[in-house]
Write a structure and sequence with these properties.
With about 70 residues, the protein is mostly helical. It has helices spanning about 1-10, 15-20, 35-65, and strands at about 20, 30. A hairpin with an 8-residue loop joins strand 1 and strand 2. It is elongated, with a radius of gyration of 17 Å.
Length: about 70
């Protein structure tokens, strides 16, 4: 959930960023990023997004465990 949320919020696809692809044209027709420097930038952004997603998921999980239980 956290990966999907962050991808939508940032308008950035984790899989494309890690794969060196982009798609600003016809849906379903990705294009390879040509510049090695741009691929490194995208890969770093994808890794940051993944780490942010893990942190968000951990925070939500901790919050859920701290909620009062209705079981007695």
């Amino acid at each position: 959930m956290s990966i999907g949320y962050l991808q939508a919020r940032k308008h950035f696809c984790l899989a494309f960023g890690l794969s060196g692809l982009f798609n600003f044209g016809v849906l379903g027709k990705p294009t390879r990023v040509i510049s090695e420097e741009d691929r490194k930038i995208d890969r770093a952004a994808a890794i940051r997004l993944l780490l942010q997603a893990v942190a968000l998921a951990a925070a939500v999980t901790v919050f859920a465990f701290l909620l009062p239980s209705s079981h007695k």
